[in-house]
């Protein structure tokens, strides 16, 4: 699989990135290692994780995913050097005091989190270290509108950037990125970096899929002009765009066994659990079938082929899912189908924003 440069960095990543948030919760360590082996065999060189994983987040599984990855690297000599490894420092608590106490994210928090991730990952350096969500109050995780009255930020962006710069200078981090960010946030991180000679963010990891194309509402222009790559997460809309929920609904006893939406109570209250999101997903899924594609093929091909996307993050719970997601690479969507997709977006909006 070909690789492409990520932003203005020297990182060359495959257009598919293996997301790992299910490892340590829905996927046990042996199965996770088998999936990592398969991804490497298929040419994927890019792995994304986070200190707060596994998901759904619990104190008992905090850091479990990074530990599973660390054991995989330790047992496969030589693979670490061939892998672009990305992880994330969590933002303010969001009800997870075992991750971070309080409403701030101080330079000391960032450094301590990085040190702990390095230990769990059993590596000397993290290739891409990302801020998982902003300390600022921004419209993310189902919040639709910015409300300045809810601002509780305690750490200026410049201080966060200084802390990340220290990790780069120490050789513990190669490049930095953002996640769940807004156009303002991306621009401000780049502006301050250029003004003060600090490391420049090379990527932003945001949701991007058929039922949430909010990235195209200004953030795509920001990232294009600033040369910041998009790492698209949830390309299958938390499973809604696979078709598995089309007949049964998203929760309760009728949901497919083991499906994320059936298990993650907190997610059902957010963007992916909205009835409007399922209604729109069903229409996209039928559109795929009408054009001779599976829902998964169309949803992934949409992300794989968009100029806005540097790499698409796929999250899996089985080898079959992994193989299906990789096999979708190379699928092309006809101009007629792309027009129909845009028409459907006009009618349904972005219900999972």
From TrEMBL:
Residues 15-344 form the NADP-dependent oxidoreductase domain. It comes from the Bacteria. Keywords: Oxidoreductase. GO terms for molecular function: oxidoreductase activity. InterPro entries: AKR_Detox_Biosynth, NAD(P)_OxRdtase_dom_sf, NADP_OxRdtase_dom. The keyword Chloroplast does not apply. This is Aldo/keto reductase.
């Amino acid at each position: 699989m070909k690789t492409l440069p990520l932003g203005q960095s020297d990182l060359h990543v495959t257009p598919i990135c293996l997301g790992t948030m299910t490892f340590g919760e829905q996927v046990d360590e042996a199965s996770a290692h088998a999936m990592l082996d398969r991804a490497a065999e298929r040419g994927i060189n890019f792995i994304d994780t986070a200190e707060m994983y596994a998901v759904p987040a619990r104190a008992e599984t905090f850091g479990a995913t990074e530990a599973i990855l660390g054991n995989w690297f330790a047992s496969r000599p030589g693979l670490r050097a061939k892998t672009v490894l990305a992880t994330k420092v969590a933002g303010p608590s969001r009800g997870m005091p075992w991750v971070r106490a309080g409403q701030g994210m101080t330079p000391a928090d960032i450094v301590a989190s990085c040190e702990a991730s390095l230990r769990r990952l059993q590596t000397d350096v993290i290739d891409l270290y990302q801020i998982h969500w902003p300390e600022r109050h921004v419209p993310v995780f189902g919040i639709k509108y910015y409300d300045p009255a809810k601002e509780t930020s305690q750490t200026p962006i410049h201080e966060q950037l200084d802390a990340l710069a220290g990790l780069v200078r120490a050789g513990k981090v190669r490049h930095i990125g953002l996640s769940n960010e807004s156009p303002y946030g991306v621009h401000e991180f780049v502006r301050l970096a250029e003004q003060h000679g600090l490391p420049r963010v090379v990527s932003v990891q945001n949701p991007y899929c058929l039922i949430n194309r909010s990235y195209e509402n200004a953030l795509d222009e920001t990232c294009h002009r600033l040369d910041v790559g998009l790492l698209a997460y949830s390309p299958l809309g938390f499973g809604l765009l696979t078709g598995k929920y089309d007949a049964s609904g998203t929760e309760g006893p009728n949901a497919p066994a083991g499906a994320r939406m059936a298990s993650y109570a907190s997610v059902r209250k957010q963007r992916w659990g909205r009835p409007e999101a399922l209604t729109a997903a069903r229409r996209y899924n039928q559109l795929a079938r009408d054009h001779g594609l599976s829902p998964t093929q169309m949803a992934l091909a949409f992300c794989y082929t968009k100029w806005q996307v540097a790499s698409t993050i796929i999250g899996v719970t089985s080898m079959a899912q992994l193989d299906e997601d990789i096999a979708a690479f190379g699928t092309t969507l006809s101009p007629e189908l792309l027009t129909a997709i845009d028409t459907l977006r006009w009618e349904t909006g972005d219900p999972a924003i």
